[in-house]
Write a structure and sequence with these properties.
It is built from 5 helices and 7 strands, in the order E-H-E-H-E-H-E-E-E-H-E-H. The protein has 191 residues and is of the alpha/beta class.
């Protein structure tokens, strides 16, 4: 099974808008870049692709050794659809889609399972922080509120076996001030 990791990344200057009351624009941009860098490094040894539309993000991704997939249409689903075309043409069989705001990510090697849809939910069991699926299948993404349930239903509709993987390092994404507090708490608990 030939697998690639895709990390959709929006412009760092536009990222983390929900933290506007907590962090300055410069702090939000730095946080977004730091998190995305953590995710890109965690994606090795797989082939790593950053899906983006921002030239600065593309340059940043290349400096970290990632390939870049340029996406014209905004949004996670559009980024994954574009990446799917590129990866299929490049001969990949499977994809792991990882959000760029996972500050504790350290590996994705345990995610992809041949012929399966695998999901790592957020800590609220609502979203899908990491998703993996066979490229040559009828599975498609449906990010947004309730995406975990959406992806389960789509996997069932595509007659694909699915599994939710528990991973405390991948369940924490940074969207709210509460998430930031949880991140600070977990950092203090780390060895």
């Amino acid at each position: 099974m030939r697998t690639a990791v895709v990390i959709p990344v929006k412009s760092f200057t536009m990222a983390k808008g929900r933290l506007a009351e907590t962090l300055t624009p410069a702090q939000r941009a730095q946080l977004a870049q730091d998190c995305a860098s953590t995710v890109v490094r965690a994606a090795g040894p797989e082939s790593v692709y950053v899906a983006c539309s921002d030239p600065d993000v593309a340059h940043w991704a290349r400096t970290l050794g990632a390939d870049v997939i340029h996406c014209e249409t905004p949004g996670l689903d559009a980024a994954v659809a574009t990446a799917r075309i590129v990866l299929t043409a490049a001969g990949f069989d499977h994809v792991i889609v990882a959000h760029a705001d996972l500050p504790l990510a350290h590996t994705f090697t345990h995610i992809a399972r041949e012929g399966h849809v695998t999901m790592v939910t957020d800590r609220h069991r609502d979203g899908t922080n990491v998703l993996s699926f066979p490229l040559h299948s009828d599975f498609h993404t449906a990010y947004g509120p309730g995406s975990l349930d959406n992806h389960i239903h789509i996997a069932q509709g595509a007659s694909l076996p699915w599994v939710i993987i528990g991973d405390t390092s991948l369940e924490l994404d940074l969207d709210t001030a509460e998430d930031l507090s949880e991140f600070e708490k977990r950092k203090k608990e780390m060895p």
